[in-house]
Amino acid sequence: RREPLALVNLKKKNDETGEEELAAYLDHCEAKATRHIFLIRHSQYNSDGRADKDRTLTPLGREQAELTGRRLASLGLKFDKIIHSSMTRATETTEIISKYLPGVRKISTDLLREGAPIAPDPPVFHWKPETVHYYEDGARIEAAFRNFIHRADVKQEEDSYEIFVCHANVIRYIVCSRALQFPPAGWLRMSLNNGSITHLVIRPNGRVALRALGDTGFMPPDKITRS
């Protein structure tokens, strides 16, 4: 909903200037830059922890984050910011990655916390959250999509490169059901490795391309996990 026509009160604009000036005004409202979104799944963590604060990265998870940080730095891009989930495993992954990207500001948000976005189809039997979680988590994760995944602001002149460190369910929902507009219930058919990189490109016209999904080709095989 960031196409120019959605940003203009057409009746008011026509009353003020007439239709002949509308086209020029709409040109002024068009995005000019491309946004590159890098969605990073957190590294392996202690899944036996009872509370979030106890679910810290494992030694292997810390190694994975180091590898991800090196990979992002090797791309030679000017990253604008790192937005990360406020959960412990995502925060710790961010701290390690940020060592390789000095000067890039970090922003924590609850919107990107892990959750149950929508009931998967076909259902799985090893993961059955209570129905209420789909309503609570789904609304929050949808809000994350609307807040963060959109075309560039009209004032943005240059292409941007942004990193989001979060969770598998969040990334799969954003990619499958929202960014690419695939059937939303199919999000759980995707699998993402720990520390993986998913790359979305959002063009000024609003079109979205998926350049990479769950890439861990930069990790040695013995360092790859999905837990």
- Quick one: CATH superfamily? Phosphoglycerate mutase-like
CATH topology: Rossmann fold
Largest sheet: 6 strands, mixed
Shape descriptor reads globular
Subcellular location: Mitochondrion outer membrane
Pfam families: His_Phos_1
Catalytic activity: O-phospho-L-seryl-[protein] + H2O = L-seryl-[protein] + phosphate; O-phospho-L-threonyl-[protein] + H2O = L-threonyl-[protein] + phosphate
Protein name: Serine/threonine-protein phosphatase PGAM5, mitochondrial
Structural summary, described in words:
The protein has helices at 10-17, 22-28, 59-74, 88-98, 131-148, 168-179; strands at residues 35-41, 81-85, 105-109, 160-166, 197-202, 208-215. The chain is α/β, with parallel strands linked by helices and 227 residues long. The protein has one domain (33-223): Phosphoglycerate mutase-like (Rossmann fold, 3-Layer(aba) Sandwich), CATH 3.40.50. It has a six-stranded mixed beta sheet with strand order 3-2-4-1-5-6, sandwiched between helices. Helix 4 links the parallel strand 2 and strand 3 (105-109). The longest helix has 18 residues, at 131-148. It is globular. The two termini are 36 Å apart. 30% of the residues are buried.
